[in-house]
């Protein structure tokens, strides 16, 4: 009967919810980069201290990944995601009330803590709502939200700061997130709970794998389970590579606006569109990476080739960022940065890869371990860049640091990760 009827398309509505949630997630963590010049002017913050403030988000975000994944495995996507959305949006609003470095630092810590379950939730939704042959493209679609929030809104965000002050930026963006969190609770359901999905779509989602409609088993949060996951080369290699690729993303979400203004002398409002180009390129990279990955799998039948090749190519492209140190033209700099960020967009395919290799009983915990390793970059990169800028007075060393990590990440995918196949734990 399931094969005789046409499958419904409820999963695409779920994908739209994921995309909007991810857009808000990255918009909330990124608006500090847009507000930074005004914040620094009002509160007299040094580059090194600003690096610490940028970094504070990832202190709690990274180290809450594993507990967040364990909470997800116990509470499920609907409650975990809705609660996370509302809490991180409230933390964003709190930024607008702060009048000191300590206050901003605390707000960043709260934001990171409350955003931690987002990507483990996305990984779980990907496994539960999409067959393997659609996961890369689905990842590409929802991951565009990482870049759309800034890529297509930079002029608007800059205008808000110029017109109403930097505090209004946090009030507006945070308020939107609280409203969306309530909407998520009202609309999201698991496949077996949805009244709109039919048996044909459920069969399509299962796609020969073990059923996804059963309730997920509860997995204890133990150091032994974490060690068991990291002992698998697939998870270890992907985590190292994602750390390296995420360093490029962190640069663009935190210091890139300051790089344009301070190093290249580009006025933020007047150069709004050109400053948006790298973010738009990253959006295209995310989508193209997913399409290319699924295409390679269809043609070759190899998930290893289909998942790894686009990620390796993307990591190598991020390393081209260092070329910006050797050109004078701002237009060429924007082009170089667009290539680097395009490559980083392709690296986001790592989330599809980790969903392919994660043990079925530990999808949430695996996502937490993976995102913990990836987001250590959010702790290290802002501090390194802030110190380099303060000590040298330029971003030259910062760009070289990011480029080197791109090469290291490619090596991890080539030499450590091995075959892309689902891990089994004994």
How would you portray this structure in words?
The chain has 426 residues and is mainly α. The chain has helices spanning 10-43, 47-63, 65-75, 77-95, 101-115, 118-129, 132-143, 145-151, 154-164, 166-187, 199-206, 223-230, 233-254, 256-263, 272-300, 303-318, 330-347, 350-357, 363-392, 396-415. The chain starts with 9 loop residues before the first helix and ends in an 11-residue tail after the last helix.
List its traits.
20 helices, 426 residues, mainly alpha
Secondary structure tally: strands? 0
Judged by helices, strands and strand pairing, the structural class is mainly alpha
Low-confidence stretches: 211-216
Which shape, going by the Cα principal axes?
A: globular
Largest sheet: none
What does the oligomeric state look like here? Answer: single chain
- Portion of residues within helices: over 70%
Rg computed from alpha carbons, rounded to a whole number of angstroms: 21 Å
Taking all residues together, what is the mean pLDDT? 85
Report the sheet-strand fraction.
Answer: under 5%
- Reading the helices and strands in chain order gives HHHHHHHHHHHHHHHHHHHH
Q: Distance between the terminal alpha carbons, to the nearest Å?
A: 37 Å
């Amino acid at each position: 009967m399931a094969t005789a009827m046409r499958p419904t398309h409820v999963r695409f509505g779920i994908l739209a919810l994921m995309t909007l949630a991810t857009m808000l997630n990255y918009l909330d963590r990124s608006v500090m980069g847009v507000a930074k010049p005004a914040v620094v002017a009002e509160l007299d913050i040094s580059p090194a201290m600003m690096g610490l403030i940028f970094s504070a988000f990832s202190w709690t975000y990274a180290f809450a990944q594993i507990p967040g994944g364990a909470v997800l495995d116990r509470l499920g996507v609907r409650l975990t995601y809705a609660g996370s959305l509302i809490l991180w949006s409230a933390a964003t609003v709190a930024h607008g009330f702060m009048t000191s470095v300590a206050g901003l630092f605390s707000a960043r810590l709260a934001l990171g803590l409350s955003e931690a379950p987002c990507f483990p939730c996305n990984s779980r939704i990907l496994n539960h709502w999409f067959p393997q042959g659609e996961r890369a493209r689905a990842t590409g679609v929802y991951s565009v939200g990482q870049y759309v929030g800034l890529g297509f809104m930079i002029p608007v965000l800059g205008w808000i700061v110029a017109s109403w002050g930097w505090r209004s930026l946090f009030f507006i963006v945070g308020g939107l997130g609280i409203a969306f969190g309530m909407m998520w609770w009202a609309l999201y359901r698991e496949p077996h709970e949805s009244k709109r999905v039919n048996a044909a779509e459920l069969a399509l989602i299962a796609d020969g794998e073990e059923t996804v409609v059963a309730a997920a088993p509860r997995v204890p949060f133990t150091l032994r389970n974490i060690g068991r996951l990291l002992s698998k080369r697939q998870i270890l290699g992907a985590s190292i590579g994602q750390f390296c690729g995420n360093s490029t993303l962190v640069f663009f979400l935190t210091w890139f606006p300051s790089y344009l203004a301070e190093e290249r002398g580009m006025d933020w409002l007047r150069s709004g569109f050109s400053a948006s180009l790298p973010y738009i390129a990253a959006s295209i990279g995310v989508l193209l990476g997913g399409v290319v990955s699924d295409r390679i799998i269809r043609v070759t039948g190899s998930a290893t080739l289909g998942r790894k090749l686009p990620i390796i190519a993307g990591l190598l492209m991020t390393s081209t960022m260092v070329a910006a140190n050797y050109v004078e033209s701002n237009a060429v700099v924007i082009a170089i940065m667009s290539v680097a960020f395009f490559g980083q967009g392709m690296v986001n395919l790592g989330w599809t890869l980790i969903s392919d290799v994660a043990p079925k009983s530990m999808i949430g915990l695996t996502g937490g371990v993976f995102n913990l390793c990836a987001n250590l970059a959010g702790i290290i990169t802002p501090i390194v860049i802030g110190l380099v800028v303060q000590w040298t007075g330029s971003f030259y060393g910062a760009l070289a640091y990011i480029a080197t990590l791109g090469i290291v990440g490619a090596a991890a995918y080539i030499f450590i990760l091995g075959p892309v196949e689902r891990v089994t734990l004994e």
